[in-house]
Amino acid sequence: MASERALALKTEKPLGWVPAANEFAEAVIDGLSSSPKTLPCRYFYDARGSELFEAITDLPEYYPTRTETAILAANAADIADRVPEGSILVEFGSGSSRKTELLLAEMLDLAAYVPIDVSYSALAGAKQRLNGRFPALHVHPIVGNFTDEIVYPSALQPRPKIGFFPGSTIGNLTPAEARELLAGMGHKLGPDGRLIIGVDLKKDAHTLVAAYNDAAGVTAAFNLNLLTRINRELSATFDLTQFRHEAVYNPRDGRIEMYLASERAQQVSLLGHTFAFAKAERIHTENSYKYTVDEFQTLAREAGWQPEEVWTDKDSLFSVHELAQSDADLSFRSRPSY
Ligand code: AVJ
Q1: In the structure, what pLDDT confidence band is assigned to residue 331 with cuts at 50, 70 and 90?
Q2: Which of 75, 143, 173, 272 is the most buried (most CB within 10 A)?
Q3: Which residue of 288, 289, 290, 319 sits with most ligand 1 atoms within 8 Å of its CB, as the best mutation to test the pocket?
Q4: CA distances to 7, 111, 224, 238, 276 from 230, in Å
């Protein structure tokens, strides 16, 4: 095994950490001061936002979660076979860790599971559930953004690391940002690191648009909840009845774009700032990029990863990729015990 690269360490945030109000305030004021106006999608996930996203994953129109879950269920044993004994599973943006259970049920000799998420409540709920189902599994949650440096407890530091990044959350980033994030994950997971990543696939616009404009209006509530959070945490004056959810597919860039559109000319104030909105003016809240398998494998190679395996469903709606470090020592695979 190649020697482990010392990983940059950063002070671990205590469980219960929430983003500093000023960090949130700065991002919101910057976004609403820019033209066109924007709000970062990472702030969707307060407690209510995480609940609404869970509800989205059960919607008939929102195919990604159930399709990825079926792919993982069908291939978890194969994926687990390729994981060295005593590894740690590091999940970026773990949320409820529901999909992860499919892997954990097959990866019985993990040293630990390290879920990383911005939502304290999501981590706490997942830890409690996993402790019940896998009493022998060491669960070490980290509250933070998956772009942050990871602080591994010293006992886990030298262990082989398997990254897990499901749900096509990579789609929230532009391809350039995604390349950078993947390269950063390579650094965080070490020279023998592997990465299991879920990527939503390009398909007909009708299916895509429906997945982000569900008939029940849950995605609209998820999008508008961001304004509720800003009103609550930053004492803003958004009138939610005067903003409308919009989600469109942009075929040129291969992405779904989500917006909050102003129903009329209006002003919103927060923390001493006043922002004017024209009628129909939009706030961009999220991109969700879609890829072909080839496009994503090319991006992964550019980020220093070697595509090893890819699994899709029979309708090619979604894909799960297994990536290895392109300079990784893969000889351990040929040992009979694996
Ligand atoms: C969690 C980012 C993968 O983009 O499909 C779901 C979030 N936004 N419905 C996605 C989301 C609207 C979701 N990701």
Answers
A1: low
A2: 143
A3: 288
A4: 35, 40, 10, 8, 16
